[in-house]
Amino acid sequence: MRLSVGSLRQVVKRDLPIEFVAQQLTSYGGLELFRRYARRLGLLPRLRRACAPVGGDYCGARLSLLLLALFYVGARRVEHLKYLVGDPLVRRFCGLARLPTARTVTNWLRRFSHHTLRPLLRLNEEVVLDTLARLQLPRPPTASKAPELFAATGLVSAASIAIVLALDHVSERLSRWRG
């Protein structure tokens, strides 16, 4: 059964309340803070523009965020999506009502080329330069502002790295399949 594109998205209307209390948390607990930071950077619309040439049923920006979430929670392969399917924080982070299968993500990654990857690399550069300008860092960066710079750099770099690694993995599998 084919799903409508509109049914794949999930709207996040407000922030989850965060309380710092002694309790057991999953490794996904920081995704809400990560989502807020990405929203503050305006990352979703910027990723949407950068991933527009790739196309697909799922929004490329949301799939990029899904790859970031995979990277953040320690998944080493796209196939590890099957362990995250029921997690509401991962779905919330990506803005998806339903997570795609590993095959869907792999097919989306297969559409990338060196030409369509360039906007993501430019986005990475923009986010880092915007953060540097906003922090007005002297040389070298002060210790109090270094975490935000690291987070901004890591956010988009992780997305770019995850996509490049996934492309390499897909390319390797295709070359073995073709013989």
Shape descriptor reads globular
Look at the helices and sheets and give the structural class: mainly alpha
Please report the number of helical segments. 7
Please tell me the overall pLDDT.
Answer: 77
- Main pleated sheet: none
Could you spell the SSE succession in H and E letters? HHHHHHH
Beginning-to-end CA distance, first to last residue = 33 Å
Which residues sit in consecutive blocks of at least 5 with pLDDT less than 50?
A: none
Count of extended strands: 0
Share in helix: 55-70%
What descriptive keywords fit this protein?
mainly alpha, 58% helix, single chain, 179 residues, 7 helices
What can you see in these coordinates?
The structure is a single chain. It is built from 7 helices and no strands. The chain has one domain (25-178). It starts with 30 loop residues before the first helix and ends with a helix. Helix 1 runs parallel beside helix 4 (88-94) and helix 2 (43-51) runs antiparallel to helix 6 (114-135). The mean pLDDT is 77. By secondary structure, the chain is mainly alpha-helical.
